[in-house]
Amino acid sequence: MEAEKSFAKSFLNSLSQKPIRYRDDYSLGLSSLSQIPPEMYQQRFQLPERCRERSCVDRKDEIYVHLKSLRGSKIDINIMSYKDETILNIKEKILKTLEVDLSQIKLLNKGKVQSDMKHISEILEPEQKQLMFHVMIMEKKQSEENNEFSLKTCDESIINKNSEILNLQLDSLFWQDLRSFLLTKLDINVCDKVYNIFKDAYTSKMNL
């Protein structure tokens, strides 16, 4: 009899040490909720250290970007960007607002056209949190047939209205726009040479 008792005790002790397994559809009864210690459900959830660091870095890397048209006030857009974003990312953000093709948008900073793959961090000065770009909308590329037609029309108009062109007075804004356009196609050194050729040719014609 004593052997049976000791076996029963050891068997029950071994059972109490094993974890209790519940069925997949088991639900905890409401009566047992009062058994949960208050500190368990009153404890506030805290972000892991890495998440807190990342959120601080994100706020630190935010850049306020102001985009406006080169002339007039047709375009005036404010967006948020990040230092690791590129010029292409900014173009994509304003694409729906401008309602033009991506290839038509040119962004200028300090009079120089910025390439699509350039990062915002490459343009920013130390501790700078704001950035402004001038926006130029280029004409949509035409087919070769349309280009030939436009060239013929242009030649005829130049021949017929040569006297009017000679009397045309071009203001300083025209020359600013011309230089900005040339910057979208040429390197700055080549741009200055071509710009001076245009201006010298115009000046010599006006002095005839």
General description of the model:
This protein is of the alpha+beta class and 208 residues long. Among the domains are: 59-137, Phosphatidylinositol 3-kinase Catalytic Subunit, Chain A, domain 1 (Ubiquitin-like (UB roll)); 168-208. 50% of the residues lie in helices and 14% in strands. The protein is built from nine helices and five strands, in the order H-H-H-E-E-H-E-E-H-E-H-H-H-H. It has helices at 2-17, 38-42, 49-61, 87-98, 120-123, 144-160, 162-166, 172-185, 188-206, and strands at 62-69, 76-82, 105-109, 112-113, 130-137. The protein has a five-stranded mixed sheet, sandwiched between helices. Strand 3 and strand 4 (112-113) form a beta hairpin. Helix 8 (172-185) packs antiparallel against helix 9 (188-206). The longest helix is centred in the C-terminal third of the chain and has 19 residues, at 188-206. The protein is rod-shaped, with a radius of gyration of 36 Å. The mean pLDDT is 74. It holds the Pfam family Get5_N. Residues 63-122 form the Ubiquitin-like domain.
> Span between N and C termini?
134 Å
Could you state the order of secondary-structure elements as H and E?
HHHEEHEEHEHHHH
Please state the second-level CATH architecture of one domain.
Roll
Strand order of the largest sheet: 2-1-5-3-4
CATH topology of one domain: Ubiquitin-like (UB roll)
Number of helices: 9
Q: What would the principal axes of the Cα set say about the shape?
A: rod-shaped
For the record, what is the CATH homologous superfamily label of one domain?
Phosphatidylinositol 3-kinase Catalytic Subunit, Chain A, domain 1
Overall number of strands? 5
- The chain-level structural class is alpha+beta
Instruction: Give the quaternary arrangement of the chains.
Output: single chain
The gyration radius over C-alpha positions equals 36 Å
CATH class of one domain: Alpha Beta
Average per-residue pLDDT, rounded, comes to 74
Helix content: 40-55%
- Residue windows where pLDDT falls under 50 for at least 5 positions: none
Biggest sheet character: 5 strands, mixed
Amount of beta strand? 5-15%
